[in-house]
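re: that chain from earlier
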Amino acid sequence: MEGPTLLAEAVAAGLTIEEVFRGPSASLDLPTGVPVRDIDDRVINAVTDVESPRGVLAVVAMPARALPSDASFVVVLAGVADPGNAGTIIRSAEAAGADGIVLTAGSVDPYNPKCVRASAGALFHVPVIVDGDPRALGLRSIGTSSHAPTSYLDADLRRPLALVFGNEAHGIPDGIDLDVVVSIPHRGRTESLNVAMAATLLCFEVARRPQ
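^ sequence. v structure.
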C-alpha cells in the first residue's frame, strides 16, 4: 500500500504491518517492532503509479475475515471490473454500515493498489470475501437496472438484504438470482449512473430506512 493515511488505517484496523519503506520527508507513527527501511524518493517514484507519491510504501498482510453469522446487509460486486469503482463501492458500503462485501468470480481484485486507494482504508474495516457465491448468503437480493419499473425509493429495502451491483458494461451477469430489481430515476439524457454512484445511493438508502 502507499501513503501514510492508508498505513494509519491499516494500523487502526489491527492488520499486520510486515515492512515499511520510508522516504526522506515521511513522518510515521507505527507500532513497536515494525521494520522500517529508509529509501530515496527516486526509488519510491520508480515503483509507484501514483502521480504525487506520499513518501511511504508498506507491505501489509491481507486481512482474513469471514462474514458475521448474523449479517443482514451485504453488498455484492458481481463482475465489477474497474478497481476505482470497486474501491469506491467498498468505501460507501462500509460508511453506510454494511456487514460485509462479497466479490464474485470475475470481479476485480480488491487488493489492486488502485482499489485499495479508492477504498480510503475502508477495505481494512469490513469483511471482504473474494470469489464468493451470493446464493450462499441466504439473503433477499436486490439488483439495479435502468429499465426496471420500480424505483428504489418505492422498494422494500428493509434488512436483511443483499445489494447486487454488476459489471460496468454488461450489468449483472446471468446466473445471479435476484428477488427484486429496482431503478434509480433520473431526468437527464444519461442512460444510467456509474455503478459506484448507484451503489452509494442504494447503500445510504438502506442505511436511512428503519431496520
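The longest strand covers residues 17-22.
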